[in-house]
Amino acid sequence: ETALIGQISASLSSLHALSALLKVDDRNVTVDNFPSIADMLIEQLHGITNLQLAPYGTVSQIHPLEGNEGAIGHALLLDPARVTGALATIEQQSVGLVGPLTLLQGGTAIIARLAVFSFFASEFLPDETWTNSDGEMFSRSCSDLSALDENCKLEGRMENGTATYFWGFATMVTLVSDLLATLDFEGLEEGSHLDSRFHWRILDRTAHASQESVHGIFAHSSSAGYGVS
């Protein structure tokens, strides 16, 4: 358990690293070089399936991208299914963690999101329109200061007397299989490290709705299965 928590913490530090870069970046260097930065973080920290940037709450970059193309352009602050959670993450100004949950494309994952506040972000969010998969359109208008939509201005903490404003989100997705691969749980079952072999299960006692059918068990040895004792 300690090793698992330690690896999750190490993986989550990727978001703080991205936030630190974006906070002081006035020339979009981080955004322009995101694939190489993400590669470095994934290689050094391990247990990360992909990293994402969402300026002003709209996903613009995912690395690696393969298999996640459909998420590009997803406006979290305009999607009625996501806006409440997105605003809560902005308000708490700390990492918001969801999961383990079952992904629509398959697999079980943990999703972590951090709201980034920058000295160089615009004071007001840009006007934007987003269309969901059913063809419904949702929009935000922030350019007319006399008739601002709700949540057009999202302020961060004052730092050294300077205001910060919402830049967007840094997001980490980690498949449970990628996370556990860093910890050699298979060795427990095979007896690689100890004289005894272990059958193991890892469960979330406050399971996400997508995990209720497996009783919150999001990983297990091949011999243990989903049975509940």
From TrEMBL:
Any one GO molecular function term: catalytic activity
Name of the protein in its database record: CHASE domain-containing protein
Coiled-coil positions: none
Stretches assigned to the CHASE domain: 55-229
PROSITE patterns in alphabetical order: CHASE
